[in-house]
Amino acid sequence: MTPHVETLKRTHRKLDEEIRIEQKGAAPDRARVDRLKKRKLAVKDRLHRLVDLYEQGKI
Q1: The whole model's pTM is what?
Q2: What pLDDT tens digit does each residue of the chain (59 aa) get?
Q3: Which residues contact 36 (CB under 8 A, 6 or more apart)?
Q4: Which of 3, 17, 19, 38 is least surrounded, with the fewest CB atoms within 10 Å of its CB?
Q5: How far apart are CA 49 and CA 18, in angstroms?
Q6: Helix (H, G, I), strand (E, B) or coil at 7
């Protein structure tokens, strides 16, 4: 895989951890959780597009 794919994977894991930590808090900030989830989904979408391109031999 490309270094960019690895970076996206790390970012996705980091966002997942941030979401988990925020949700475990005494008073989770729902707006922050929603923002983190949107960012995580955007990263996941980019990751899947890159992997698809890689598997098709386009990158």
Answers
A1: 0.86
A2: 789 999 999 999 999 999 999 999 999 999 999 999 999 999 999 999 999 998 998 88
A3: 15, 18, 19, 22
A4: 3
A5: 24
A6: helix
Q: How far apart (Å, rounded) are the C-alpha atoms in residues 28 and 47?
A: 28
d(CA 37, CA 12): 10
Q: Is the dihedral of CA 2, 36, 15, 45 positive or negative?
A: negative
Tally the domains of the chain: 1
CA distances (Å), origin 39, targets 26, 27, 34 = 23, 21, 9
Q: What is the spatial distance between Cα 42 and Cα 48, in angstroms, rounded to a whole number?
A: 10
Count of residues in the chain:
59
